[in-house]
Known about the structure:
heterodimer; A: CATH 2.40.50.140; 3 helices; B: alpha+beta; 11 strands
Amino acid sequence: xxxxxxxxxxxxxxxxxxxxxxxxxxxxxxxxxxxxxxxxxxxxxxxxxxxxxxxxxxxxxxxxxxxxxxxxxxxxxxxxxxxxxxxxxxxxxxxxxxxxxxxxxxxxxxxxxxxxxxxxxxxxxxxxxxxxxxxxxxxxxxxxxxxxxxxxxx
Amino acid sequence: xxxxxxxxxxxxxxxxxxxxxxxxxxxxxxxxxxxxxxxxxxxxxxxxxxxxxxxxxxxxxxxxxxxxxxxxxxxxxxxxxxxxxxxxxxxxxxxxxxxxxxxxxxxxxxxxxxxxxxxxxxxxxxxxxxxxxxxxxxxxxxxxxxxxxxxxxxxxxxxxxxxxxxxxxxxxxxxxxxxxxxxxxxxxxxxxxxxxxxxxxxxxxxxxxxxxxxxxxxxxxxxxxxxxxxxxxxxxxxxxxxxxxxxxxxxxxxxxxxxxxxxxxxxxxxxxxxxxxxxxxxxxxxxxxxxxxxxxxxxxxxxxxxxxxxxxxxxxxxxxxxxxxxxxxxxxxxxxxxxxxxxxxxxxxxxxxxxxxxxxxxxxxxxxxxxxxxxxxxxxxxxxxxxxxxxxxxxxxxxxxxxxxxxxxxxxxxxxxxxxxxxxxxxxxxxxxxxxxxxxxxxxxxxxxxxxxxxxxxxxxxxxxxxxxxxxxxxxxxxxxxxxxxxxxxxxxxxxxxxxxxxxxxxxxxxxxxxxxxxxxxxxxxxxxxxxxxxxxxxxxxxxxxxxxxxxxxxxxxxxxxxxxxxxxxxxxxxxxxxxxxxxxxxxxxxxxxxxxxxxxxxxxxxxxxxxxxxxxxxxxxxxxxxxxxxxxxxxxxxxxxxxxxxxxxxxxxxxxx
Lengths: 154, 658
């Protein structure tokens, strides 16, 4: 092979790999991303039922009801609107009424959100940033418990 | 008083770094030996000053001096000593100080071990290294001063986040930072080479040990973080594609590429331009990692206080360093002489493929990490990119890399013979096939891709052994001759084999854990039994227990297998005193078959507990693989020919710019 051919082979190979990778990325970004909505978003934007998304807000005071086994029901609120959620499984350590929460799952036709995972990975006085931000955009005044004192893992 | 001493030392360190940047650089331009000689003592002086600053802060933590704001916010007098010390880097300000300490230590190491570097190169490298120190020391002093006093001093501190009070996490940041910051040496050498307008095989020989050392630290640091997440978070997983995990993983991928391309440059003087660019990109990814974690732009367990000033400052540092280096690259790249030629099928060709695939995979991780940020900035839509994205993009690229991996070391330099390499690998292929069939037989109901993944892991391991076997001509010469050949192999050859063995082992662990994990969630009352993966568990009830700075509710599970007692698991729910925060302590029975992993959930109204049980097959292989990879790196590092500061046999083969 001449120098030119060698170079062409390598550049061709590189471009082929990059193209394949780009296609994978585009395909994956179309199919695997999960949107984040607050309860008001869900009601205003009329999020389609059956579509997977993350619901974020506060666990409404007095809404947590435990059912049979590990089934639990609660409501997620952004203080303007609230959506009932059902979940079966172990709740995170920091799950508490009045605290921030992010649930991932699907909306049923009845308007109930069926979650398959519930996240509350933040400390006592902390709220997931996307929740805090979304609430702020809605003009919701946050109490002292909703500030960001900062997480401490380096 | 000691705290003020630390503050002053840090200010002096900044001044020293400024001197260390300016004078040697000027000296190298004007060939002034006196000015260039400033670099070495300045590097030592800088290390001494930053060490004083760091020790001063550590002292404040050890004696619980709550008049220091940083200590008050992140420590507590009732904390065990080791966590009071690790608390120093368990917060933003302290961890940045650790970052700068590592940076100074690496700079001083170059000054100490780089005695045989050409004077101008050494002066330039140390100057560039110091310029990074200027930026970050200024960052600390301007936006994140850990020596800030509090008046009046509170009576007690706010305490360290309990999930960070853990032995693995105490040492995870120092290793990770040594890795991140160690890559700055490769960056400084690359920028120095561009300033000088020349690079050669000797340059690669100087750069490789530093990159290797940084890579080993990064490997161990990431593995520790993953191990910590596995047993401390109680989610049964070991990697979550969390943005901050990605932030450390991207530099690792690039550094792995850099190690391999520096090899080509050292042995064959090829890929010069690419290696220089890669050195710059690798450290850029370290800086990006620092930016992502420190600026709080990402929502993550790791994100610190959102302070826009800090984010903007680090972004400015990044733009200046990376932009500057890339501009220099664009201007000077023409001056670099092109290196040796090679056929596409050759050792060099294999290493190019390695680089292309590693960098492409790093790019897919980068896209997945930054896409949510970009989308939110542009459209306001909030999304999350999770494991499905990474499995779909990163997975296939890695699969191609791993299948190609064993061919690389079996190809000759310059022009390889693919057929001969394949012949040497037939036994490895047979092992892989056996692994495929064996896995299908044991777990025929699992996902269909999993046996292929296990086979790929076996293929990588067997391929690594096949390469050594062919080098010592195992089987074709007498046993004594084989042993003599084995002893005669350079340590770097053993290092390569070990590292590749580690990769294979890790792949097996990852695939087995991901594909064959069993999980069950149920409510158990005392006396009830359940079964998972061949184990029978009896819940014996729970009781309170008092720890040094926490109160816990400990569950007891008796585990039997085939009627025989195996172990007792004690998962717990802890409530720390300060800050009042609950954590989950998983009960883990670790074994070679896999880990039995129990998590105690919340108490139910009827007296039962929610219980989550996992069986993670072969999960140990993941960290064992990482440790073996690290050992391979250390083995290679101990090779005489690579040793930092080892005398060179011949006069420096420095090729002038054309």
